[in-house]
Each structure stands twice: as C-alpha cells, then as structure tokens.
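This entry is set out below.
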Amino acid sequence: MKSSCYKVLMIAAISLAAFGLGFAQPSATPAARMFDGETLKYEGKGSKYKLSMAVADLTFSAVATPNSNELVIKSEAVSKGSLLKLFRYSFLQQYQSTVDLDTFRILKTTKHDVQKERVRDSEAKFDYAAKRVSFVETDPKDAMRPPRRIASEIGDQLYDMISAIYGVRMLPLAVGKKFSFSVSDSGLVYKVPFAVTAREKQDTVFGKVWCFRVEPEIFGTDRLIERQGKMVIWMTDDARHTPVRAQIKTEWGRFDIKLKSSSVID
C-alpha cells in the first residue's frame, strides 16, 4: 500500500471528520463536558471492483481530567481482517489530544504511528501566546536519527484532527450552512471549507435516524491530501451530533466507516 493511500485510510479511520473550526464559538464548556466518559467504536471497510474487506477497528474515548480544566481524547486505529491476511499490511495509530474545556482549542497532541516495521512517535505543542505550533517526530527504533521538527504560525482558535471531531459536534448544524476552518496536522496548518449538504435517514446502531450530511473538502491542492477524492460524514440530528458513518472515495477505491457501539459513563 502506497504511503498516500495509507494517509487516505488513516484520515478516514482516525478522523471521521478530519477538520477543525476557524471561527469564534460561543462558550463551549457546557457542550464539551457532555463528551466526558464517552466511548465510540467503529469498523472500517475498503472496497474496489465489488470486493469489500475489513481494514480497521477504531476507538475514540474522552475523559475530563479531575484536577484541571482539560479534556483528554484518546483514539486508536488498528488494522484487521483481509488487509492483514491478503496483503500482509499492518498499522497501528494512537492519538492523544488534550484540549482546554473553556475554549476547546487544542493544547497538545501526541501520536504513536506504526506501519509494518516503521515506527514514529511525535508531539505537537500549541503556544497561543507566541502563536506557534511546534512539532517534533522521532524514530524510537533509531536513537541516532535526528528528530524531524516543524513549526508553523497559528491563530487564536485551532484544532488537531481528533479534537476537531468533537468541535464540529458542538456546532448548530443545519442544511445549507457553510464554514471555513483550520486544522493542524504534523506541525502544518490547513484551511479547509465544509458544508452541510443534506438531512438524510441512516441505518445506525441507534436504529434508523435522521442525520446531517457533512462534506469537508480535504482533497485538492494545498489540502490535507493533494489528490482527487471526496469525503462525506453523517452525524445524528440531535444534541450530541454523533458521527455514525463516513465515506471516502479515491482512486484506490472506497472506504466506509460505521459506528458499531456507543457508551457513556456518568
């Protein structure tokens, strides 16, 4: 699997809604605290030429820290099924995103990324006073390898790929609404537009429910993925706006991610 195809898969998997907000929000604290104790589990499948295969299990969990005003969001994507058996390709990607509950802007992102024998650990720190994100990536298998460092200028409100999922869930979604936003990935900052294009019924773990169809523009020149493609996310039309399904179409085929279980611990 080529690295570009891998990035498409991981954006479909690890970031059902891989985008952040680039505009001022009302106080996010009441809405943000509803995520405390929530766990969402998904299954990802890939298909091409009428052949469908399971490719990954995905888990998202969020916990408010007891002694600070922060929310820690952990996410994991693990390869499975035909991807392992037929192509002998494995991956593991683990994110931990720390956000401020008052502003819901990202404070720190850590990532553990494994692609077969390749392993990378990284950390991104966000300094809003200095308006700067500092990203450092290391190879834990090679202590002599120089760290990869990237720094970029940031604004007052920024999200990483994971916290953005939760940020968009707090928006007042409605058909016809359009937004522009900023998302930081590996020390770089991207501007991406998205639109709420429809309200549709979907078969979900909650039954057949109404969902908003959200379409972020992550493909194209100067986007997260500089190739042709399309991404669609369906979020429930209720207070939680739970992402229940995502679909990405690319030159390599189609990737579908569906929610398998949802739980909240009070």
Notes: The CA atoms of residues 21 and 122 lie 23 Å apart. The first strand starts at residue 38 and ends at 48. The two ends are 41 Å apart (CA to CA). The first helix runs from residue 3 to 14.
